[in-house]
Design brief:
Layout lengths: L1 H5 L4 E7 L5 H10 L3 E4 L6 H11 L4 E5 L8 H15 L2 E8 L2 H11 L11 H18 L2 E4 L5 H12 L5 E12 L10 E4 L20 H7 L4 H23 L3 E8 L5 H13 L4 E8 L5
Parallel strand pairs: 1-3, 1-4, 2-3, 4-5, 6-8, 6-9, 7-8
Helix pairs in contact: 2-7, 9-10
């Protein structure tokens, strides 16, 4: 088998990760991008499948979905991957999709699905067991994507950037969150900036019902120049910090921008900040206006 594979130009992507983290959605997107996708292939058939595929599909790309449904065979997977690297010289990458435990639990509850490893018990127990079984794949992953804050379209865009635009990806998802202090502070923030020092459209009856997504509100917030100075300093700081976070191995950075109600000032600054750092390489970037409709 080794000689056959050494002469192949095919590329294999292993898509794995936690149940509920978005693997099914990711496979569908990869199929749209031209990958030949196979989900839940038994580990014992991997070598034979790869051999047959690479004999007949030179230059093609395949994506194999492997997860805890193969739990009895996962221990063998490490041996297969070692052989691929050292003997068969197969070109492959591992993408691991993850999410915070509380997010995974909520997703299972919303869809009323049973966790594959819960065995009729609590979802939390299934997640804990799955993390243990998949730990070696997470450690070995070339690309780690945390989907806790990602919408379906955000995940698709990240995959498109990596595999279609061939952009470098260093496993850092930056989430910008605007919110109002009156509705509570999100628990997952890494950095928090209070912008209540800026002009407040709330006190203008004609502007009160509008939001920071609109130019009129943005112009009002930015009117005295202080917001521009603040944004420039924040932009400089993030451009300094983000490469350091990447080097340290951080995979998610949640930045909160807060005002009183989360509708005008924080939304404006979040929108402006998104535009100022969207050109940064090696990150995924998402935007969430939590309280804009309250």
């Amino acid at each position: 088998m080794g000689e056959i594979l050494k002469n192949s130009s095919a590329f294999c992507l292993i898509l794995t990760g936690m149940s509920g983290a978005g693997k099914t959605v990711a496979l569908k997107n990869l199929e749209d991008f031209g990958f030949n996708c196979i989900d839940n292939l038994p580990v014992g058939l991997l070598d034979k499948f790869i051999e047959l595929f690479m004999q007949s599909n030179q230059g093609e790309r395949i994506a194999l979905g492997i997860d805890s449904r193969n739990i009895q065979e996962l221990d063998q997977l490490e041996e297969h991957l070692l052989f691929w690297e050292e003997e068969a010289q197969i070109r492959f990458r591992i993408v691991f999709l993850d999410a915070r435990d509380e997010v995974l639990i909520q997703r299972f509850k919303e869809t009323r699905r049973a966790h594959p490893l819960a065995k009729g018990g609590r979802i939390e127990a299934g997640i804990a067991l799955e993390r243990k079984k998949l730990a070696f794949l997470r450690e070995k992953a070339d690309i780690l994507i945390d989907t806790s804050k990602l919408l379906t379209r955000d995940l698709r865009q990240q995959l498109f950037s990596i595999f279609m635009e061939d952009k470098a990806y260093k496993n850092l998802q930056v989430s910008l969150v605007s919110f109002g202090f009156k509705y509570g502070i999100p628990e997952d923030l890494d950095l928090l900036f209070d912008v209540r020092f800026l002009p407040n459209p709330f006190y203008d009856s004609e502007l009160r019902s509008h939001t920071g997504l609109e130019k009129g509100i943005q112009d009002f917030v930015m009117q005295d120049g202080k917001a521009e100075i603040f944004l420039q300093k924040l932009n400089d700081m993030l451009r300094f910090l983000i490469p350091l976070y990447i080097a340290e191995g951080k995979n998610q950075l949640v930045i909160g921008i807060a005002c009183t109600g989360g509708k005008h000032r924080s939304v404006t600054i979040c929108e402006k900040l998104y535009q100022s750092i969207k050109d940064l390489e090696n990150i995924g970037l998402s935007l969430d206006h939590r309280d804009i409709n309250k």
